[in-house]
Structures are given as C-alpha cells and as structure tokens.
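haha ok so turns out i had the wrong file open the whole time. this is the CORRECT one, sorry everyone. sequence first:
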Amino acid sequence: MSGEKVIFCGNNPDFLDKKLTALSNKSNGSNAFRIPSLIRSGKTLIAAIDAQSCGADWGYIEIAIRRSEDGGETWSDIEIIAAPPARKTMLSDECYASAFYIDPCMAIAPNGDVILLADFYPECKGLHKRSILDKKKAPYALYNKELRPTLYDRDGNFYVIDKSRNVLDRNFNTTGLTAKYETGELFKGDEYLGNIFLNGKSPSNINEAGVKTTFGAPLKAPKRNYLFLLKSSDNGKTWSEPKDITGQVLIKADGTFLGVAPGVGITTHKGRIVMPLYVDRKETVSIYSIDNGETWHRMAAHPYAQNIDEWQMVQAPSGAVIALGRAKRYGKTPMSISYDDGKTWIKAGKTNLYAPKCQKSIISIGDYVFCSHPNSKKRENGVITVGKFYKSHGKVAGINWYSETEINKGFFAYSCLTRVDDEHIGILYESEPSSFILFKKFKIKDLI
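then structure:
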C-alpha cells in the first residue's frame, strides 16, 4: 500500500478540524466537500466531488474535479465543471437560497467519452424539506411528439420550452419569452428576467461563497430532482454543459426524486452504459444507453432494479451483472442480479458482506471482486473486502468473500474504487464527516 494523498480538503474550521484545514490550498481546497467519484479514462485518473458551501445536502453545491496523469502521484488543480445558479450564498446550512448539484457518478462510454451524471435541484433543501417540493406539477409535457420541460407562473399556469428555447403557453402559442433551460436563464427579447430555478425577484447582497448571484424569474421550473449529464471527450480536460436527461427515464411512480446513486456506473461487455439510480422510497432504478450516452432508456415493464437505496454494480466474465445495495441498518448487504446486460433484475437475497447503512464501492477484475466499505456498526474503519464470483446451476449466483485489507482506522464513509493500472487499484474516500477526501493505492497482488 502506498501513502495516502489529500485530494480535496476543506478550508472552513466549522466543518473540519483546524489542524486539517491547514492542509487546504488553492490546488485542493474549498469550503467543504463530500461524495467522491473516481474513474480511469485512458491513462488519466479523474476524481469528482461535491464542492459545498456548508457541508450539508443543500446550499450552494458545485461539481468539481481533479485529474492525475501519473497514476495518482500528482494531481491537477481543482476545477469546477458544473455550477448552479444562486440567489444568496452563506457558509451555513441555514441558507438554501440556491440551486445545487449533488452526488456525481461517472462511467466510460464505449467511444472513450467520460460520462458524469449528477442530481440537480432548483432552490430548495431537496429531500430534507419535502413539503416544498412540487408533487403536483408535471416537469415535462408532450409537444410535437416529444417531452419538453415545463415552467409555471405563480397562478399555476404551465408553459412549455420548445427545442428552439421558445416559451409556449398551455395552448402552445408563443409568449415572446425564451429560456436557456439547463442554465435557467429567462429572457424577453434581450431583457434578462431572472432564473427559472430560483425564488425571489431581486438579487441578495449576501454572497459568502463569492460566486455569481442572480434572482428568480417570474416563471419557474418545478421543485424536484433532475438528472443532469456532462461529457468529456479528452479525459476530463474539458466538459460539455450539463444536459437534462430526466424526461427520458422518469415515470410517474418515481415521484419528485429519481436520483443518482453516487460512485460509478459500468459499461458492459456488449457496450451498454448502465447507471445506478434510486427513488425516495429507496427502490433502485437501472438506466442504460447504447449510443455513448446520447439517449437513455429504462425497462417500462420492469422499472425497478430489485435492490435498496444507493447501489453499485459489477459485471462477471460470463456477462451477469451483480449489484450491491445499502441496507437500512448494520448487517448483510442486499444483492440483485441481471442476466440481460443490466436491463432487468432479480432479487438475490443478501450476501455475507457486513456493513452499516452507508454507500459502498465495488469493482471487478476478472473473477475477483473488490468492495470498499466501513467495517463496523457505524461509519468507521474502512476496508477493502475481496471475493470471487461463484456459480449455481451454471449461472453466476453471487460472490464468495474471503479476505479484508484495512484502508484506515477511524471515520470512513463514502468511497470509490477504480483500477489504476495492471498492478494497482486506487480508492478515493471520506476520512472525516465532511471535507477531507483522501486517495490511496493498493497492489492488487496484496489484496487477493
């Protein structure tokens, strides 16, 4: 095992021990961090994270990355690749006058593009204040045989944004308004009217995060979770603008939250990108793309993936895909299996991997499976548990776990594994409740 490296480090002693904030600098620092995602693109490692204003699951949250081209020895300066609109920012969880991104999940498309999927919320507190979410407002409407985003005025009248960014009324007549939907900007001609993802009519003079602020538009997008996707075609050097894919995979039964299960997705042997999602009642959802992430699909006849909460998956050499979920309390880990390339799933009971209620990461190399997780009844003492796929009646039926290797002692929460090269795997993990994200490498031969 090589030494740990600080990849993301908070600079606010309200959220991280002052001794640790001393390690924060312009290359790795911001106010607070959570939720790591790590992937290898070519010979480049890409680490993605929630860069937060306050360490909570709301407030001003951007998606940030760092890159390494030498196997994790050195890393590029931190870079923001997705920034939400904000009306007011404070370095406190009392403020939620901002839209926010949260929970990155990356995958590598068959053509080599890096796919990053994240949740996006308009101004609200997300699942932490469900009462203000718009349960009765449809986020999309059918126009010209295509689902298009909707907006609403204060009287509840709905509007539709067409492909040319024109805002149409409920009878599909033009209104003279245009909307840049993914960024939220609403215009009447050249006049800027505000942001559809924010409340309020005027900007605030409170901006503790030091970012660009604005004000709410008279028409607003429904308050709910959206799925926004970014792409990079150059190993994470540059990224596309975020694109909303929610309407391609959302069904009514999902409610106001169809969200990303953070970590990574997979690309199957057949070239299908499969990404893990879940809904508020903790059922899991599998979405997939067969065109390098341009369009996304979900099995209408079997819309849920038969697992629990935040989940991750691996593919066996035979083609079977095994998924591990997040149990409601300490105990064995829920497992499900797909035999059709991640489209439909069956429950497979629980595997003998004991962990508390916490996200875990899982990757496979040949017949070997590597899973990082807390090794305690609470979020502490991280380990990498190693197992091998086993078969029953000629089919892959589960994983036999046989060894554990210590990652750390003390606090350990969300993590993400990836293969660094032929000899090493790497892990990006939370070693404090907020704002201290470390990277470690392990030799594969020492783990198995």
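The mean pLDDT is 97.
again sry for the mixup
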